[in-house]
């Protein structure tokens, strides 16, 4: 019997070739099994072409026995890889969802992709219905009070001053106009003139029991509120409060503004006086107060007076705010005026005070108005 070197043994070479071919041919199990005879035929042809010894019958049987073994090993490897990948997906899903098995299953389902398309075509996305934003303008009590011109009832129907302010500032109450000169919530500034420009209120009265330094009236609600404020200040022992000016017509404001321009020029006049058609005094809801102790002092004396200090703390209780506050010229457009009170009603004045607001522009979410 001829002895062969182990490295060149035909059996070893055949085994190595069988392993290589079995591995290369493995794509799908069925294909590997069906192609085994063809692979053996190809190997024999290659041997003939190369002049190599042909496989013996026993070698062929050995190769056929070996192929299933290699196939099982490869399938086992593929199965292990699938298990590892699925395990990783479940672990990642569990970590992202707090560790619950149900959430982990959901994560794996998400990795698997979207659901299959239905037989009748692409499914139509089901969108959840979004509830419409509630608006006071859909409330009959609110709209009825609005149509009747009852400002207090309107604010009450909205749920109070804070709720009314929030609805208007957020834009969900389009039926409320901040430009209506007949409303307590009117906002007039250098960007918001009257419409009509020569508007005149129809319910002007002189405040009762209040010293007036000139014949100047207020709208009825503001006049009653001023009477109450002056009495409360006197009862608190801070002294008498009088007033210099309240309502000014469009024509009167023309003369007032022209006089300021003549003294200091347009730029200076615009810081301390409104142009005709832009003055809060034309609304009949603004008043310039002065401190009085026997005789009355000037507007400039208000800030440092006991009356001025009391007004800063209590005017809101009677529906008034200090319209032009210290340090807010960049928003309101005017220098601070401790004497200039604006009536907006008790409920809105309370919301203004409690919210820490210093300008009506910010209170109602309007742009700043420093210039014309």
| Gyration radius, rounded | 46 Å
Output the CATH topology of the largest domain.
Muramoyl-pentapeptide Carboxypeptidase, domain 2
Text of the CATH class of the largest domain:
Alpha Beta
Number of helices: 14
CATH architecture of the largest domain: 2-Layer Sandwich
Write structural notes for this entry.
Helices cover 48% and strands 9% of the residues. A hairpin with a 1-residue loop joins strand 4 and strand 5. It is built from 14 helices and seven strands. The longest helix has 40 residues. The protein has three domains: 103 residues, no CATH class; 41 residues, no CATH class; 180 residues, Muramoyl-pentapeptide Carboxypeptidase, domain 2 (2-Layer Sandwich), CATH 3.30.1380.10. Helix 1 crosses helix 4. Strands 3, 4, 5, 6 and 7 form a five-stranded antiparallel beta sheet that branches. It has a two-stranded antiparallel sheet with strand order 1-2. With 372 residues, the protein is an alpha+beta fold.
Summarize the structure.
The protein is an alpha+beta fold.
Defining traits:
disordered N terminus, 3 domains, 14 helices, Muramoyl-pentapeptide Carboxypeptidase, domain 2, 5-stranded antiparallel sheet, alpha+beta, 372 residues, globular, single chain, 9% strand, two-stranded antiparallel ribbon
Write the layout of secondary structure elements.
Blueprint: H1 10-25, H2 29-34, H3 36-50, H4 57-96, H5 101-111, H6 140-148, H7 151-158, H8 161-170, E1 204-205, E2 218-219, H9 220-235, E3 240-245, H10 250-272, E4 286-293, E5 295-296, H11 306-314, E6 320-324, H12 329-332, E7 337-343, H13 346-354, H14 360-363
Antiparallel strand pairs: 1-2, 3-4, 4-5, 4-7, 6-7
């Amino acid at each position: 019997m001829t002895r062969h070197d182990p490295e060149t043994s035909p059996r070893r070479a055949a085994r190595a070739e069988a392993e290589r071919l079995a591995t290369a041919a493995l794509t799908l199990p069925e294909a590997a099994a069906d192609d085994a005879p063809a692979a053996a035929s190809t190997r024999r042809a290659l041997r003939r072409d190369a002049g190599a010894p042909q496989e013996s019958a026993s070698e062929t049987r050995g190769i056929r026995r070996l192929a299933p073994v290699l196939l099982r090993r490869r399938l086992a490897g593929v199965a292990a890889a699938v298990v590892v990948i699925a395990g990783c997906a479940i672990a990642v899903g569990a970590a992202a969802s707090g560790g619950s098995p149900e959430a982990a299953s959901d994560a794996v389902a998400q990795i698997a992709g979207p659901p299959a398309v239905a037989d009748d075509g692409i499914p139509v996305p089901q969108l959840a219905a979004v509830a419409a934003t509630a608006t006071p303008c859909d409330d009959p009590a609110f709209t009825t009070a609005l149509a009747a011109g009852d400002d207090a009832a309107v604010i009450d129907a909205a749920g109070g001053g804070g709720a009314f302010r929030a609805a208007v500032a957020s834009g969900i109450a389009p039926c409320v106009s901040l430009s209506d000169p007949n409303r307590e919530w009117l906002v007039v500034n250098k960007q918001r003139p009257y419409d009509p420009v020569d508007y005149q209120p129809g319910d002007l009265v002189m405040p009762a029991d209040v010293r007036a330094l000139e014949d100047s009236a207020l709208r009825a609600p503001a006049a009653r509120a001023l009477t109450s404020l002056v009495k409360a200040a006197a009862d608190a022992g801070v002294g008498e409060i009088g007033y210099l000016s309240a309502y000014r017509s469009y024509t009167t404001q023309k003369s007032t503004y022209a006089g300021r321009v003549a003294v200091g020029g347009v730029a200076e006049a615009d810081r301390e006086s409104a142009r005709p058609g832009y003055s809060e005094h034309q609304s009949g809801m603004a008043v310039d107060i002065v401190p009085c102790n026997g005789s009355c002092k000037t507007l400039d004396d208000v800030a440092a007076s006991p009356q001025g200090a009391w007004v800063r703390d209590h005017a809101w209780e009677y529906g008034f705010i200090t319209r032009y506050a210290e340090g807010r010229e960049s928003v309101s457009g005017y220098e601070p005026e401790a004497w200039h009170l604006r009536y907006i009603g008790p409920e809105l004045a309370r919301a203004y005070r409690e919210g820490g607001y210093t300008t009506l522009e910010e209170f109602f979410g309007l742009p700043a108005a420093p210039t014309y």
